[in-house]
Amino acid sequence: DIVMTQSPLSLPVTPGEPASISCWSSQSLLHSNGYTYLDWYLQKPGQSPHLLIYLTSNRASGVPDRFSGSGSGTDFTLKISRVEPEDVGVYYCMQGLQTPLTFGGGTKVEIK
Amino acid sequence: EVQLVESGGGLVQPGGSLRLSCAASGFTFSDYTMHWVRQAPGKGLEFVAAITSNGGTTYYAHSVKGRFAISRDDSQNTLYLQMGSLRAEDMGVYYCARAWMQVGGPFDYWGQGTLVSVSS
After folding, report:
1. What does the alpha-carbon distance between residue B92 and residue B90 come to, in Å, rounded to a whole number?
2. A35, B13, B20, B82 — which has fewest CB within 10 A?
């Protein structure tokens, strides 16, 4: 199975400041079709998760452009250019290359 | 509007069984691979099972294989998870999710979840 690792575990942030979360996979998520199957989800307190970024760098519908995803192969990053108070929650990366699908352990973003 | 509504959760004794349902609306259910993802109390997300759009292929987490069965009824727009030989480690919120582009996701819609408790 592909192991997904996230860092940091917890990320205190100041509103208006940037934030960055890293995610690593135990093997490349690049498919032979050229797509890299790495997605990012945010689970706000008391809510179901929702999709932020798909295929490494594509923002999902309705996601503000302060969120961006990058990376390749086994190393990935989610960046928030200017954190807003509503961005608090737990962020998860997930590999969709092969089953069983696997998630990172999560990064809890909270306001300082 | 796309909606996924789970039901069927509850308290069950270790070794018992439970069937979860996920009622889908607002899209052509039969066109999509569907998943169950769970979250133990205070923990992260874990893939449980998936079923392809034609129901021909199913996938399971190692931890549930042989105990859980995923199925779908496209005529009723409903996804199911039959859970058996339940253990304490199966406790948590179970979400159904729609895989938007391919078998492995991404999950563009999630239900609100249904809580499964396993205790004597």
Report:
1. 6
2. B13
With CA atoms as reference, the chain A residue closest to B58 would be A99
Residue B5: band (very low, low, confident or very high) from pLDDT cuts 50, 70, 90: very high
Q: Which of B44, B103, B112 sits opposite A103 (nearest CB)?
A: B44
Tell whether A99 is within 8 A of chain B (Cβ): yes
What is the three-state SS of chain A?
CCCEEEECCEEEECCCCCEEEEEEECCCCECCCCCECEEEEEECCCCCCEEEEECCCEECCCCCCCEEEEEECCEEEEEECCCCHHHCEEEEEEECCCCCCEECCCEEEEEC
For position B14, what pLDDT does the model report?
97
Distant-in-sequence, close-in-space partners of B44: CB < 8 Å, separation ≥ 6: A90, A92, A103, A104, A105, A106
User: What confidence tens digit (pLDDT) does each residue in B65-78 have?
Assistant: 999 999 999 999 99
Residues of A in contact with B45 (CB under 8 A): 41, 43, 49, 92, 94, 103, 106
Q: String of b and e for B51-76 (b: at least 16 CB within 10 Å)?
A: bebeeeebbbbeebeeebbbebeeee
Beta bridge partners of B93: B39, B115
The whole-angstrom separation of Cα A74 and Cα A31 is 12
CB contact under 8 A, B105 and A94: yes
pLDDT value for A56? 98
What the block records as the tokens of B103 is: 């078998």
